[in-house]
Amino acid sequence: ETDAWIYRTIAERRARANGETDILAGLLRLQDPVDGSPAFTDDQIRDELMTLILAGHETIGNAMVWSWYLVAQHPEVESRMHEEVDRVLAGRSPTAADFPQLPYIERILTESMRLYPPVWVFPRRPLQDYEIGGFTAPAGSYFQLSPYVTQRDSRYFPEPEKFDPDRWSSPEAVSRNKFTYFPFAGGMHRCIGEGFAIAEGVLVLATIAQRWRLRLARGQSVEPEAVITLRPRGGLPMTIEARQ
């Protein structure tokens, strides 16, 4: 169904060619520098759009869900979140310029992605024999690197099951090995959208926290479902209360 909608939209845009300025329009306008033919086939454009939909919607959406799940269970965190929002924004809508002024909410998001990284596993294959941790990995072997596992390891995070945004304001957070926390992967293949995703997530959390309190629905149990992304099985029903 999604494929049919994407291909239909591509065909309609090719037929119209009326000067839209979104990502799809940009992909359609690109031409081969040699012969001037379209740079991408419809199949290639479909693949690019699916990547954007998955990376730009599914992941940050799950990060928001898990953040509210955790905040709803920790009133002291929620109280500090509201204090920061009220002090910084004073009732106005947040903008990108406010992002640096919302450090506590950024720590909430960072800690949420430690406990529930939206992408919970990254596959990797070494191109040549490689020794790591005393083991030799043959070229072409298959690895699964899991931030969900590593980020709950007590060797790197004291009280690893505890939701504690303030752990990210400690000196240890600065000196910690960067590959003990990698919800956006790392190295040359680190997520190119990391900075945007963090800023977007912080501003979305701030926008909602200005006006609402979110609570878990009565009797709701939460079970993580590990598919391509990590999400609550069956969704996460919550109730919304207006802030006074």
| Overall geometric form | globular
Note the total helix count: 8
Q: Might you state the CATH topology name of one domain?
A: Cytochrome p450
Intertermini distance = 43 Å
**Uncertain spans, ≥5 residues at pLDDT below 50?**
none
Radius of gyration: 21 Å
How much helical structure, as a percent, in the residues?
40-55%
Reading the helices and strands in chain order gives HHHHHEEEEHHHEEEE
Beta-strand proportion: 5-15%
Largest sheet: 2 strands, antiparallel
Level-2 CATH architecture of one domain: Orthogonal Bundle
Under the CATH scheme, which class of one domain? Mainly Alpha
CATH superfamily of one domain: Cytochrome P450
Total beta-strand segments? 8
Structure classification: alpha+beta
Q: Give the neighbour order of strands across the main sheet.
A: 1-4
Average pLDDT confidence is 92
Describe the structure in your own words.
This protein has 244 residues and is of the alpha+beta class. It has 8 helices and 8 strands; from the N terminus they run αααααββββαααββββ. It has a domain at 63-120 and 149-242: Cytochrome p450, CATH 1.10.630.10. The protein has helices at 2-16, 23-29, 42-72, 75-89, 103-115, 147-150, 171-175, 194-211, and strands at residues 122-124, 130-132, 135-137, 143-145, 212-216, 224-226, 230-232, 238-242. β6 (224-226) and β7 (230-232) form a beta hairpin. It is globular, with a radius of gyration of 21 Å. The relative contact order is 0.13. The mean pLDDT is 92.
